[in-house]
Amino acid sequence: DADVTQTPRNRITKTGKRIMLECSQTKGHDRMYWYRQDPGLGLRLIYYSFDVKDINKGEISDGYSVSRQAQAKFSLSLESAIPNQTALYFCATSGWERTDTGELFFGEGSRLTVL
Amino acid sequence: DAKTTQPPSMDCAEGRAANLPCNHSTISGNEYVYWYRQIHSQGPQYIIHGLKNNETNEMASLIITEDRKSSTLILPHATLRDTAVYYCIVRVGAAGNKLTFGGGTRVLVKP
Predict the structure, then answer these.
(1) CA of A92: how far to CAs of A1, A63, B39, in Å?
(2) What angle do CA A57, A63, A67 make, to 5 degrees?
């Protein structure tokens, strides 16, 4: 099983619908992230959480919200989806111990299409 | 975090070394250089990182210039499976785990 699991992997929805993308991890990491990738571009950070009680906005948080339900779970919500939120979404985790390399571990991605 | 500049694309012959350059002229003394790659639309994969010394692991080597303003990722014997987009990122180490991805270099390994 993958260390970082995203569901759903693919989703097609309509404008105005509420969508939730879920992420769970078995790495035991405290830090979790949501990124968005548009075709041909790099990843942009939406939200990140350094522990269960910590939530921080990234560079493109407008139109999104998150929930850190537990150390292992971090969900991304689109309250009212719009077509320009069509993208590939990635969840990632990392450790913070002194022995950690700072490496981020990514899920397989969730492809969202908003019609 | 310091900004990086990479060529948008490059080709490489299978079996040959691939040398991927990255400029980071505004890097700070406490910022590390990280390399990730993304194969097709999969999640990015960590390759290697370094502060000022050259580093090598089973995947690649990282050469950082003495002034730390640029670096080169070396894939010693490129295979077709190394075709991917390679991202060079600079940031404060493990304490600041946010990664800011630029456009990367699209590497095509040809037979």
Answers:
(1) 16, 20, 16
(2) 55
Q: Is B19 helix (H, G, I), strand (E, B) or coil?
A: strand
Contact B82, B75 (CB under 8 A): yes
DSSP letter at B43? P
The series of mean pLDDT values per 10 residues for chain B, 111 residues long, is 87 96 91 92 92 93 96 96 94 65 92 94
Residue A90 has pLDDT above 90, yes or no: yes
Q: Which residues contact A97 (CB under 8 A, 6 or more apart)?
A: B94
User: Would you call A101 an interface residue with chain B, using a CB distance cutoff of 8 Å?
Assistant: yes
Kindly determine whether residue A4 and residue B43, on different chains, have CB atoms separated by under 8 Å.
Answer: yes
What separation in angstroms does the CA of B48 have from each of A56, B61, B75, B82? 27, 8, 11, 15
Kindly report the nearest CA distance between residue A38 and chain B, in angstroms: 11
Instruction: List all residues 6 or more positions away from B89 whose beta carbon is below 8 Å from its beta carbon.
Output: B1, B4, B33, B34, B35, B36, B99, B100, B101, B102
Chains A, B: CB contacts within 8 A come to 64
